[in-house]
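so the lab meeting is tmrw and i was supposed to have these ready like two days ago... anyway. pasting both below. for each one the top line is the aa sequence and the line under it is the structure tokens. i havent really looked at them closely yet so no promises
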Amino acid sequence: MYMIIKHTHLTIIALTLVFFLINFALTLKGSDKVNNKLLKIGPHILYTLFIVTAIYLVMVNPLQLYPFVNGWASSKLAGFVLYVLSITLALKWAKTTVWRFVGFISALFWFVMSARLAYAHRLKVKGAAEDVNAYIDTFQSMSQSMLVVVS
């Protein structure tokens, strides 16, 4: 069940990005399709499902990664909040195109940073030690071996 919810969670994340990109393009174009009911309600449904799946994943995770207790989970939560605020800036609050692009770039930045954080955590969990220095050493040795293979 955990893997099903996890993959559902990841799919929801991808769909929120797709909805954002579509809404942003239509907003810049000045299209009336921005007011389409699916484009208006869809992201809110996805955010709700995102939060529900995130709560489930936090509750059943074997690593005990809880927001406000663990720095990783708190960073992920902050990244999500900043992602949503950036989307709101790009689509609703901004009155000029420049500020819309600021919100757009910010949203993409927080999306990528949250994804990198998730990937970095996965690397740490799969590593042999819980020590942060061991994680950094593992990452450095992996990148050095990749450089050797490339050259």
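ok protien two:
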Amino acid sequence: MSAAVETRIRDPRIILNALQERVPHLVSDVGVKDLWEREVRLLLRDSVAVPSLAERVLGQGIAYLITAMESPGVDMGVGRTVDIGVHQLILDTPLYFAFCEEYNGGRYKHHAPLIERRKDGTVMRTAELLRRNGFTVDEELWAADESDCSPCDDKVPDSH
């Protein structure tokens, strides 16, 4: 008899909403039902025109941040499209601190982008890291910028 293999798929929406009890004021005062809706609406307000695209960008941003936090010292980077979701989460600082508490051992994970973009395959290698970390990879979003990585400076301790 062969042992059943369990596939773990991590859902960014569930992950994000699980942090809501740490930052309840972010949803109670603004009339949204949960953190997922809040962040999607902020993306729609500032940078993404289509709700379904905002959800995809947000989901991949969450997958990237958690994978970066759970993989210290691993060379990673995103393209312009997924980076929109990453920046949305970082800019909502109470939420980002909750992410750091939960997924980075309570330590702040710095964001120190390099000015020059890399064109060395980092984007698609990063997408594969997300997949190995249990996330579904939105191939279209990652492939759109596969040759144009926005990496962070590895000289900044605990940065992504």
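from a quick look at the 2nd one: Helices lie at 12-18, 25-28, 35-46, 51-70, 80-91, 93-103, 122-132, 139-144. The first helix runs from residue 12 to 18. will dig more after coffe
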